[in-house]
Every structure is written in C-alpha cells, then in structure tokens.
Design brief:
Largest sheet: 5 strands, parallel
Shape: elongated
Helix content: 40-55%
C-alpha cells in the first residue's frame, strides 16, 4: 500500500498508527529503504521550544542550508515547504514520526499541518506526507477524525495491528527459535502479537525461561513496559488505566454502568471517549448479547499483555527470577492459561470462522451468560457464540489442556444443559451446535460424539 504512493498522480497524506512497539516506524522506514526527503521524530515530554529546536535540526540534517527563524509551528512548516521547493523533481517523501509528541500545550501544530497541507501541498502532485504515532487516540481524534480543516484530507490511513499466531510462527521460524505451536501459543498468551516483545526471545532458552528473564529477572526487558505502554498511548493515562484495571477483575466484562460503579465516577461523554479509544487500540472489545440493546453493551479486556501484568506483576512483590518456570502446571498457572487461551481465541475469530468453513457467511461473535433469577434456576456462561445468518448459532466452548481434552459424562450433561438454557432464555429459532476449541483435540469416548465440531490450536494458525 505504501509503495503505491510513489505512482500516485497527486499529493498523498497518510496516517500510520497503532499501539506502541507494533512496528509502525519499522514499516515506513523499510518500505522506503530509509530514504526520505525530510524526516523528523518528536521528542517525548519536551516543551514547544525544545520541539521546534529539534525540528530545526532535522531540516539541517536533511540538507537545508539557510534555515529561517522558527518561533512557532507555522514558521516550521513554512520552512519545510521552502526546503521542499528547492529539491529536484520527483516524489518528495516527508515522514514525521511520533507526531502526537509535538502537540505540546498551545502548540497549534494541527492548524499548522492543516495550512501546510491544504494551502501548499495539495497544490502540487509530488508530496507524500506520512505521519505516525503511538498515541493512537491523538492520531484518531486530531488527524483521522478531524472535523476542522483536515476533515477528509487523509488520502490513506493504515492501522497496524499486532501479529496473528501465524505471523508469530513465521517470526519464530525466521529467527530459528525452534518453538512448537504450543510454545508459540503460550508465548502469545503473555506477549500478544507485538513484534518488539518477540524480539527479546532467545533461541537458546525455553519459552518459560524467556518469560522469566523478560519479566521476573532484576533487569527484565519488559518488567516496566506496562506503564510505558499506556503513557505512550495516552497523554493522561490514569483514567484509562483505572478502567482497564476495573475490567481486569471481571472475566466476562462489564456494562457501562458497572464500570461507573466500580471506579465510582460518572464521566459522561469522557467515559464514552475513553472506552472508544481503548477499543480502537485493541485493549478491549465491546459486544451486545443476543436481544440486548446497544446501551447494554459489555466491555471486555482482551489484551493478553495487560491481563498477564495484572495477574502476575501488578502489586506482586515477586523476587524469584525463575518464578514462571516454577509455577507452570500449578493451579495459578492453569487458571490464568485457561482465561488467556479464551482471549487468544477471541482475537482469532476470523481464523475460527475459516476453520468452520463459514468465512463467507455474515455472522456476529458474542459471549453470553445468564444469571439465575431464583434458587430454582441454573446460571450459565458461554465463552463464544457465533450467530450466523444461515440460521445456525455455534456455541463455542474453549478449553486449554496439555493433551487431548477428555469430556466426562458430567461435563457432557453440563454442555447439553448450557445449550438448552441458551435456547430457552433467548427463545432462538436457530439451530444450536456445540463447537469445542481445545489445544490438541478431544479424547475419543462416547461423550465426545455429542460435539458437532471440534477445533484445535492448529486451526488458530490459519
């Protein structure tokens, strides 16, 4: 997509955004072979004067001989336009990285970019302006969804998503890590699909030893990453962390009202904005259960790195450098791994649909639970529902296990009861089929025959 900009017959304005460490800068630099007419990176936690001084240095580094006095961003972008005018014919690629960091108090940088683009760049056909930043919410609010002068001015936008399991497998193979799919899955359950985190894996260590070193050793590479992650994404990270922390305590997620009750604050429109931004950054998802109104949406934390942090790092004074290796297969690990595996499945719903052969069918993915209204009723919870337009609902049960998962007669009865409760309470007229998603499949026995479809971790690597 980025390379196609070189063949464009008009000037192009592109925003590349995504969470910290996902590889935005690497993508842009590699695509253009590190060759830019002008490039600049904002300074974190610097004031306006320091930012402008650094911008001036970038103009000098790119070859501008006589740099006029720069006292504000309007001057800075005027100087940039003068420099670009002096360049030979051909496409001129401008790459401004960490743009949100340039927006210091009263900076007026957005209006300066507006004037640079609308008043100058669009009158030409040779400008490629690429802006980038980890502060996804800032990019979305000020560039992507700008309703002022930059409204609908972006010619392209690229949201760079984390790696899938398949892409992590390719990374592991390219780096000769010698990891099995189970190793890759369990590593993904901790790190998610962030390429930068995967770079710290050493091929001479087991996956568990790598987690020990990165998180539990004295100078672990990712020991303090959590705070840096949210600080880089949001200028005022506290309210975001407060909501993430609340959601981290409840597996099934919370309604908006439950979040308000938990954090003891009703921030009105601000809460809506925070939830939207957290969802845009892939930390949470929102979903509406079947036959529920939009305002009853459930917000659920799905970021594995954050879930791992709250379970094992936050407020835990662990001084054991081999902690992770020692707790594997212990109850605390088994509880966490079951939840983390569910989150991985939620992040790979497209692969699950492909494995089920329903990629071409319109469908919605939900979680669902029923709270009993009296002592005579039975409550239930369903990990994942795929509600299909072909009048089928796949009731998905997700189980992480070290070997083939064995369905007992008791569990078989519980599954059938769960399906019946769902049919009764939702009054659905669609057919309901049970799908088991497990690590290595089901152990063959009479009760396994009651399962209509089964998927394994291999299906998540499609």
């Amino acid at each position: 997509m980025l390379l196609s900009l070189l063949d464009s017959q008009e000037s192009e304005f592109v925003a590349v955004y995504g969470r910290r460490r996902v590889g935005k800068t690497f993508l842009v630099r590699e695509t253009f072979n590190y060759k830019f007419t002008f490039q600049h990176t904002g300074l974190q936690n610097a004031n306006k004067k320091e930012q402008l001084k650094e911008f001036q240095k970038s103009l000098k580094n790119c070859g501008m001989q006589k740099i006029p006095k720069i006292s504000d961003w309007a001057d800075a972008f005027f100087a940039l336009s003068e420099f670009l005018k002096s360049q030979p014919e051909g496409k001129k690629i401008i790459f401004i990285d960490e743009l949100p960091w340039l927006d210091t108090p009263k900076s007026k940088i957005v209006s300066a970019i507006d004037h640079f683009w609308n008043g100058w760049a669009t009158t030409r056909k040779d400008i490629i302006l690429i802006v980038c930043g980890s502060a996804t919410s800032w990019i979305i609010s000020n560039i992507v969804k700008n309703y002022g002068g930059l409204h609908n001015r972006l010619t392209q936008q690229i949201y760079l998503e984390p790696f899938t399991l398949k892409e992590c497998e390719q990374f592991a193979n390219d780096n000769l890590l010698g990891m099995s799919r189970r190793n890759i899955l369990e590593t993904y359950m901790v790190l998610g699909g962030i390429p930068y985190y995967w770079k710290f894996l050493r091929k001479e260590d087991s996956w568990a030893q790598n987690i020990d070193r990165m998180f539990f050793s004295k100078n672990g590479e990712l020991k303090n990453e959590y705070k840096a992650l949210y600080a880089s994404l949001f200028k005022n990270p506290e309210p975001y962390i407060e909501i993430i922390s609340a959601l981290g305590r409840k597996k099934t997620g919370m309604t908006r009202q439950e979040i308000i009750s938990t954090i003891n604050k009703n921030q009105g429109g601000r809460l809506t904005q925070i939830l939207e931004e957290l969802e845009e950054c892939d930390f949470i998802r929102s979903y509406n259960s079947i036959k529920k109104r939009k305002k009853e949406a459930i917000y659920q934390l799905i970021d594995n790195f954050t879930l791992f942090y709250y379970k094992f790092i936050d407020n835990n004074n662990i001084n054991e450098k081999n902690y992770w290796s020692k707790i594997i297969n212990k109850p605390i690990y088994n509880t966490w791994s079951g939840l983390a595996f569910e989150r991985v499945c939620l992040l790979h719903t497209e692969q699950i649909k492909q494995a089920l052969g329903i990629s071409g069918i319109i469908s919605n993915v939900y979680s669902w639970f029923y709270k009993p209204k009296n002592k005579f009723e039975t409550g239930t919870q369903i990990d994942m529902l795929i509600d299909r337009d072909d009048n089928i609902i796949n009731l998905c049960e997700i189980k992480f296990a070290k070997a083939e998962y064995e369905i007992s007669v008791e569990y078989d009865k519980a599954l059938q009861q769960k399906a019946e409760i769902f049919r009764t309470k939702t009054k659905t007229k669609k057919g309901v089929t049970i799908v088991m998603i497990t690590s290595f499949g089901l152990k063959h026995n009479p009760w396994a025959n009651d399962i209509q479809r089964q998927l394994t971790i291999d299906d998540l690597f499609l």
